[in-house]
Amino acid sequence: MTAFPTAPAPHGPHARRVGWVMTQVLLALVPGALTALAVRGPGVAVNLALCLGTAYLCEAGALSLRKRPLGPALRDGSVAVTGVLIALALPPWLPWALPVLGTAFGVLFAKHLYGGLGQNPFNPAMAAYAFLLVSFPVAMTRWPAAAAAWDGALAWKAWIGADMAWDGLTGATPLGHVRTQLALTHTLFEIAEQGGPPGARAGLLLNLAYGVGGLYLLARGIINWRIPLAVLGALALCAFSFQVIDADRYPSALFHLTQGAALLGAFFIATDPVSASTTPRGRLIYGAGIGGLVYLIRTFGAYPDGFAFAVLLMNLAVPLIDRLTIPRPYGTPDDA
Amino acid sequence: MGDWMTPLIATALLQNVALNLGLGLSPALDATSNGDRALWASLLGAPVLVLASALGWLLESLVLRPQGWDALRLPVLLGITALIAQSAVLGLRAGPYALRAALNPHLALFGVHWTILGLGLVLMPAPASLGAALAIGLGTALGVGLVLVPLAALVARLGFADVPAPFRGLPIALVSLALAALAFLGFNGLVKV
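The joint structure predicted for all components is written out below.
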């Protein structure tokens, strides 16, 4: 006489549903989001609201156009993860139309044109970010200086897209600062002597917060260790090799790992279960490709950080990687 | 870095013929060939384009420029590429049976495909040296291969996706091409072009 009917054997653990996984990912993003709010100001909350709202609206619109049931897709939280990742990647002082436009592009073009959840070859959040970065390069690189981050009046002016002189109120990110100074033929030693790149501590803090969330995802078995390890390992290896060649011009591996999108990207973006590679060897290749491309773009390219482009480039290669790295079943002869 | 490095990177990554001009895409947009056609077209296209670029440079610097016939650059380069591409196709037709069998359904299209890529050579600035000409030929072939081969595998996978009816087939393949082009913009600034 049990209260619960017992299903026939085998008795496995409960299935991991998309909704549960996405809730865990959102939970793991909480420390990073709170830190972002603290160091970047109220704009982060505004971006979160705009991106989440747009993401849900676009998801609902696309599903109803295709006459698909709205309930399951809206409840599983996958589109919320896309919206939150876009919002966390964006600078906080942004005209309101940009987060809306970017999120709509990501959800509609990179996700729903391909048939929705589980079928998109490109990461929607990174497609949105790259789309915004190449379309609005000035607004997308306007990061508030630490002192001005919590100035509500300035945030409002940025939000409505007011035409004003932003010099002095905004600053480059640490990666951008180092890049500009190096281009002016300053050495890293000189940059460090002048107190290092401004905002480096905030960047470090933010990356650590994302790292904590990432370790939580690893511990819960939601993401596989191969992709983050390969991303960070390749990035560190490239940075270390170049630092050995010329320590005055190439920042250390530690700097690269703790600045920009490094840990957010390695744990939350590159590990997207849909657009990432799925075979064990493929994941290592995919991750190492992202790490190497991030270093290439950061060091030799036109953009201070290259995570979005690196992820999209490797997304393009994923079907090929997967096909070439299908695991060989035990006992298959070598020439099969 | 020699004078071949910049044109090589520029043509392979920044001024990618397949992405910037949309040339020579058909092997990737054909979802039925499962990527084989794109792979063969890219692999065999490299020697064709390198040879065409080098011969074109020779003719240009020995005949066209001394005679002041710069305006003939387009027909000469395209003609050379077409000649080499068609000879390559004829040569492959006479090649070993296994190769012919693998290429057979696509071989007729390859001549046109490589000739079209010759247009990419025309649109690049005239190379300054033989090394640069070889680099432009190799870079063009490499850039097209870098796009075509992964894109073909991606398009083949899209056959299993629940793509909305109006976008099935060619439209979604072109959307993918556009997103690939967006991704390649990340290479901006690697070399000055």
